[in-house]
Amino acid sequence: MSAGGPGILRLGFLADGAFKLLVAAAHLLLLPTLVDLLGAPAGMIALTAAMVALSAIAEIVFALRSGEGTHTKYLIAYDSGWVLATVLALMLGSGPGGWVWLAFQAAASPVLALAFLRGREQLVTSSTSL
Fold it and tell me: Among 22, 37, 45, 64, whose CB has the most other CB atoms within 10 angstroms?
């Protein structure tokens, strides 16, 4: 890895986590607008915001404690799924599309959080067993 690589990765994880927190906050701040725009109930949007915030916090904690590059694959998988869900949502339009877009985030975000939390646990376990 190049000089400064781990620091750059850590900064990237922090930035991505901060962006996800902003997205979660935007979901809540724009709740009435999103209900109309996406054709989804407020509860689903709020649940999605909570799940996105959960993954953001897990990612930030991971970055602060480790920032290992082994977890970039999880971000790539999440972001790829998000792009596909967004494209599908745009094709379906308001209503079904909104449900697809929110459901992806609500389902994938806790999986991403678990990957970061589990990865942190594995790093701690492996470093204490040395």
Answer: 45
- Decide if pLDDT at 121 tops 90: no
- Please count the structural domains in the chain: 1
Question: Cα 24 to the chain's mean position, in Å?
Answer: 9
Eight-state DSSP code of residue 3: T
Under 8 Å between Cβ of 68 and 116 = no
- Please report, for residues 57, 72, 112, 116, 120, the alpha-carbon distance to residue 126 in angstroms, rounded to integers and kept in the order given: 23, 19, 21, 15, 10
Say what the pTM is.
0.83
Cα 102 from Cα 58, distance rounded (Å): 20
Q: How many CA atoms does the CB half-sphere of 71 hold within 13 Å?
A: 29
Chain-centre distance of CA 28, in angstroms?
16
* DSSP string for residues in 7-49: HHHHHHHHHHHHHHHHHHHHHHHTHHHHHHHH---HHHHHHHH
pLDDT in the model for residue 97: 95
- Please give the biggest Cα pair distance in the chain: 55
Token readout for 116 is 């970061």
